[in-house]
Specification:
Helix content: 55-70%
Strand content: 5-15%
Largest sheet: 3 strands, antiparallel
Structural class: mainly alpha
Number of helices: 13
Strand order of the largest sheet: 1-2-3
Length: 324
């Protein structure tokens, strides 16, 4: 993993000594394309090893901490760039035509597949899969590592208010904040899900040489669930090629979902919070909310004008009474 050229570490000291630590971080940053979450996860592991008693001297630990601090700073800059890029995507979605194109993408993809003369192909199956993934993400904006592991038995139907409701449930082992969230699925999502499971998922299973009783909704190769990297790359290309959202990536769905709720009702903070699975509004306001939320501004102007009209009428009535 660390790609330390021809020098192979034999002990923990060899692995996390200051010079080795710096070599490892440079090699990993080159491998993954910069300082990102993967880089910092590995850096933190090495740092914990370096600080373990009896491995390095205090002077060596101080040198490792100095190098680590530089990468922490680079990671903070990377996160700021990512947040700015995500805000551009959210700002693009303020345009009704951009939002409409994004929300209609699963339906348009389904229609294109159904319009083909020979639609029972593996390529069509993956197109339907991508459409379904986006539909499910709009209903349940989970993190991608939880999303790839959705199993068939997590989708259940309950009777609620004399209506059958389809629900996507997260298993307890994947619970966020010690909670096991559930999300209602709308009618169009369920129709697409049935089509995918009955007609197209078997094609993907056969192509990947996976058993028919595989529990995963999105099967990968050799009897496993679809890998995170594969799903991320496929969905990123799918959205970027078919919309004007050129900076879209899967994790931004956790920001788009609350935006959709708050654009329709700027006061629906609790709805947005529960949709994302956050325990309080702090995370939503600080990271996942849109910095410049124009729907809230428009709503405020509506309230302002309503109050202004009420005030003008009140003043006019008093003026007329005074004139008499």
């Amino acid at each position: 993993v660390w790609a330390l050229r021809d020098e192979h570490p034999k002990t923990l000291r060899d692995l996390c000594a200051p010079r080795r630590y710096q070599q490892a971080m440079r090699a990993l940053a080159d491998q993954v394309g910069g300082v990102n979450r993967t880089t910092m996860n590995r850096a933190n592991v090495l740092l914990r090893l370096a600080r373990h008693p009896g491995i390095l001297t205090k002077a060596e630990i101080k040198l490792v901490l100095t190098v680590h601090a530089r990468y922490v700073k680079k990671y903070a800059e990377y996160k700021k760039e990512c947040e700015d890029r995500d805000q551009k995507t959210l700002d693009q979605l303020d345009d009704p035509s951009v939002m409409a194109a994004f929300l209609a993408l699963p339906t348009l993809t389904l229609n294109r597949v159904l319009a083909q003369r020979n639609r029972k192909t593996v390529a069509c199956a993956y197109a339907i899969q991508r459409a379904l993934i986006l539909e499910l993400w709009l209903c349940a904006p989970w993190r991608i590592n939880k999303f790839v592991n959705i199993e068939l038995d997590q989708i259940v139907t309950i009777r609620l208010d004399a209506v059958d409701r389809a629900i996507l449930q997260a298993p307890k082992r994947q619970a966020t904040n010690k909670r096991s969230p559930e999300h209602f699925l709308n009618k169009s999502t369920m129709e697409l899900l049935r089509l995918y499971v009955e007609e197209y998922r078997p094609l993907i299973l056969a192509a990947n040489k996976s058993p028919l009783d595989l529990p995963h909704l999105f099967p990968g190769r050799n009897g496993r669930a679809k890998c995170v990297t594969g799903l991320r790359d496929q969905m990123t290309r799918f959205v970027r090629q078919n919309t004007s959202l050129k900076h879209w990536h899967p994790h931004v769905m956790r920001k788009i979902a609350p935006k959709i709720a708050l654009d329709q009702d700027p006061g629906a903070l609790d709805v947005a919070r529960r949709t994302g699975g956050w325990t309080d509004e702090k995370m939503l306001r600080g990271i996942y909310g849109q910095r410049v939320h124009r729907a809230s501004q428009a709503r405020y102007l509506d309230l302002l004008e309503s109050q202004r009209l009420t005030s003008v009428r009140s003043v006019n009535r008093r003026t007329r009474k005074g004139g008499r």
